[in-house]
Amino acid sequence: MKNKVILLSSLILISVCFNHVSAAGIYENANQSAEFIRTLTRYASTDIDSAFYNPAGTVFREDGLYGYFSDQMLFDYQTMTDSSTILSDNSYPAQYKGEAMTWAFPDIYAIYKQDDWSAFLHMGLIGRGAAATYEKSIPLVNKAVALLIPSDTTDYRLEAYAYFIGMTLGGAYKISEIFSVGGAVRYVHAEQNILVKYNFTDTAQNIDVNVDADGNSCGIIGSFDIKPVNSINIGFRYQYYTVMNVKNEKPNSFKGPQLLIGNPMFGLTEGAKTKMTLPMNASTGISWMIIPELKVELGYIYYFNKLAEWGEAADGKDAAGKYDNGYDASIAFEYAFIEQLRASIGYSHSVSGVNSETRNNQMLGLDANTFGIGGTYTFGNGVEITLGTMVVVFKDTTETNPYIGGIIPDNGSTKYEDRTYSVAGSVSYKFM
Fold first, then answer.
1. Residue of 293, 236, 173, 231 whose CA lies nearest to 44
2. How many domains does the chain divide into?
3. CB 348 within 8 A of CB 328
4. 236 closest CA partner among 226, 228, 249, 227
5. Where are the beta strands (DSSP E) in 83-231?
6. H or E element: which one contains 67?
7. Please, what is the Cα angle at 70 between 221 and 111, to 5 degrees?
8. What is the pLDDT of residues 221-271, one digit of tens each?
9. Residue 231 is part of which domain span?
10. Nearest one of 56, 22, 77 to 417, comparing CA atoms
11. pTM (two decimals)
12. CATH of the domain at 231
């Protein structure tokens, strides 16, 4: 029995990871402004959000001090349907629905531009940022519990939240009228919480675990921008992050069979660490004003998942090496009906890099198509208002269930389904 516990323990290393608006980004969010929600591509931006998407482009603004605030509401709905007989034989359901909702997803920007240089600040949730609830837990955990505690349950659930707060400080310099460079440093702080509850009918060893964890990392960002003519702007950006170890604090509650929850390999004990380093990524974008009223934007971001530091997988091999690299390709059209009013539509196609070997209940990583729409109105007093909405349509995917713990056959398969919706708004102001 003890050997079985050790082999199964890796199944409850819970780090529930809902897909992001930028479906290609594992852990990282690309949705850092309401303008991104309405266009889905900002990598050649010279607006205020260029402080995040295209730092070198900040010097192509008019001189002055700018402030910006945006908020997003995000709603993600997942369904996992698992045909495993381990679930049915132990009275667990086949279908599991999860919800992740975020009512507050803020971004704050400030830019000061003077002559040929600029300085900027950005604060936002650059990773994750949702609270997830599974009323019937998830298949992965239910199967592990069923094999270790063969008892009927009266109720059970799993809740989790995780967010990475990023603060970015940087600057840019215009070398010539067509070329500029920029750079920044970013501090990242991670917070997450896992809550697992199981009540059984014929045992006093109910499970009640509530664990907080946190970690820190730093990022280095480099950028350059080319503006060959007034109607075309081209941006490039590269981001590198140091290793992030997310470490458990002393559990708020920690009740249950010690063979199940007390084993360090479960990742629920005090001091347990999980590596959640943000992958390096490189992006480029082109903005082209075809005519005075119509602008087209193209964007591409590539995630170097294989080079990330995520520790070892259960088989002792490099975890990140099992993934593929990911990317997101996007296009947007913006039309000015009048000088003050601009409306846009956007589309992006995302490939996460999660494959049949790495996809599981905790890391869906479904490829996706995203559609965005919205508009911006500029007032005469320096105020600009933006509204946008988008929907992410993930590709439904069915995977054969792997052996449990590497030795116990699981004769089922799991179908993964997911949809994400967002509504965003922002206000910006030129102070001087």
1. 236
2. 1
3. yes
4. 226
5. 95-102, 107-114, 117-134, 153-174, 179-200, 207-229
6. strand 64-82
7. 50
8. 999 999 999 999 999 999 999 999 999 999 999 888 777 777 666 678 888
9. 2-430
10. 77
11. 0.91
12. 2.40.160.60
